[in-house]
From TrEMBL:
Similarity field: Belongs to the major facilitator superfamily. Bcr/CmlA family.
Parts of the chain that traverse the membrane: 21-40, 60-77, 89-107, 113-134, 146-168, 174-192, 221-244, 256-280, 292-314, 320-341, 353-376, 382-403
Protein name (database record): Bcr/CflA family efflux transporter
InterPro entries per UniProt: Efflux_drug-R_Bcr/CmlA (IPR004812), MFS (IPR011701), MFS_dom (IPR020846), MFS_trans_sf (IPR036259)
Gene3D superfamilies: Multidrug resistance protein D
Organism this protein belongs to: Kaistia geumhonensis
Length: 428
């Protein structure tokens, strides 16, 4: 049942339509995605400009951003539970803009990394607030449906982002990409500020109290379903980060040498994820989150094993079409798991949605960044490290889901709070 129906009439009258709501939330999430994906074509140019010796070094642009993104998630959620969602988002957008300006005037690679770290600190607000706002207004399968629709719109960004980045490189330098980020942040601030009402329910607004924040944190780590699905989500996110970190080297330069065609292939794979998100939004009401996500993780692992088989059979460089089909299968099934894992982790925590979103976001981002860095830094001129990374992630994520569900897959059930501690997560 939608929480929208319980909101006061005065607030409901000023709220955007369902479609506009989804698009605004998707725009919030897309700012972070754009800040990653439209820089991918500029990796070689940035490496050349700063005299870097290895293409793997340029991947630190992503890692610095994600570390800042992870850390500040701990701040924005509790802050939004205290002062509200709107002012918290505006602060985050200001921080993001400051990082973008510093990047524009970077005179060294270290300065650029610092700018990316600050950008990530600001962009964290868009991730935390998007999940918290959706949880403010929806719950259960309706929340999963909204998150899937949001992800579908959000995933459109990677389809075009590398092409947009390439276009900026044609008309200017990589600095112009950061100008575009500034413009997007300003547009989001204006649109959100004018159209989105404050969604934090008055009864859930918390006065500042470290004890309340600590109590919220204890609730998060004492819920089996929250810890389990957040861990599985973080692992899956790590696979995505490993892919993003090495995709430019795999498709554009070192493995397949696609050059200018790279954005087309990258966008096509992103489109597969968008289709999967749409399918998830249609099926989740009927089949439920567990059935879809559990089938998704099992299928993901199967396609990952296929990728490894292809990599071994062709000495690390399988035919592009075969590799792309296997990778597309992984990406499709990835999009059947992530929105549902996120929803199930958040489901029992609606009254502390901001704090919960922060803690879950911090944990999953740190875990995903570390896993992704390990995968991408092992790039050796073949697709084998990425394929092996996908398999390891799939195995560990599936094992985590099995522990969370006490060995039973595909069975709808309610979250069960554990009395006290993470130690009980082991399945007692």
């Amino acid at each position: 049942m939608s929480v929208m129906s319980t909101m006061p009439a005065t607030r409901e009258a000023s709220a955007p339509s369902f479609l506009e709501f989804v698009v605004i939330i998707a725009f919030m999430m897309a700012l972070g995605s754009m800040s990653i994906d439209n820089l991918l074509p500029a990796f070689d140019v940035i490496r050349s400009d700063f005299g870097l010796s290895s293409t793997n070094e340029v991947q630190l642009i992503l890692s610095a951003y994600m570390i800042g993104f992870a850390i500040m998630q701990l701040v924005y959620g509790p802050a939004s539970d205290i002062v509200g969602r709107k002012p918290t988002l505006m602060v985050g957008l200001v921080v993001f803009a400051i990082g973008s300006v510093i990047a524009l005037y970077s005179t060294s690679f270290e300065m650029l990394l610092a700018a990316r770290f600050i950008q990530g600190m600001g962009a964290a607000a868009t991730r935390i607030l998007s999940v918290a706002i959706v949880r403010d207004r929806f719950q259960g399968r309706e929340m999963a449906r909204v998150m899937s629709l949001t992800m579908m719109v959000f995933i459109i960004v990677p389809i075009f982002a590398p092409s947009i980045g390439s276009l900026f490189l044609l008309v200017g330098s990589w600095h112009t990409i950061f100008v575009s980020m500034l413009v997007l942040a300003a547009l989001l601030a204006v649109w959100f500020g004018r159209r989105m009402p404050e969604t934090l329910h008055p009864e859930y607004r918390m006065p500042f109290s470290m004890r309340r924040i600590a109590d919220g944190a204890r609730r998060c780590v004492s819920l089996r379903v929250t810890v389990g699905y957040a861990t599985a989500m973080g692992l899956m996110f790590g696979a995505l980060m490993g892919y993003l970190g090495s995709t430019q080297q795999i498709f554009e330069t070192e493995v397949y040498g696609l050059g200018a065609i790279f954005p087309v292939v990258f966008g096509s794979l992103a489109a597969v994820m968008g289709v999967a998100s749409f399918v998830n939004s249609k099926l989740v009401r009927r089949l439920g989150m567990r059935r879809l996500s559990h089938a998704g993780i099992c299928g993901y692992l199967a396609f990952a094993v296929l990728m490894v088989g292809l990599a071994i059979a062709y000495d690390g460089k399988p035919p592009l079409l075969l590799f792309a089909v296997a990778l597309a299968g992984c990406q499709f099934l990835f999009s059947l798991t992530m929105p549902n894992f996120n929803t199930m982790a958040m489901e029992p925590l609606g009254d502390i949605a901001g704090t919960a979103s922060s803690l879950i976001g911090f944990y999953t981002t740190i875990l995903g960044t570390v896993v992704g860095l390990v995968i991408s830094q092992n790039f050796d001129g073949t697709v084998l490290p990425l394929a092996l990374g996908f398999v390891v992630v799939g195995v560990v994520a599936l094992a985590t889901v099995l522990v969370t569900e006490r060995g039973r897959l595909f069975h709808p059930q309610h979250a069960d709070p554990l009395p006290g501690a993470l130690a009980d997560f082991g399945g007692h």
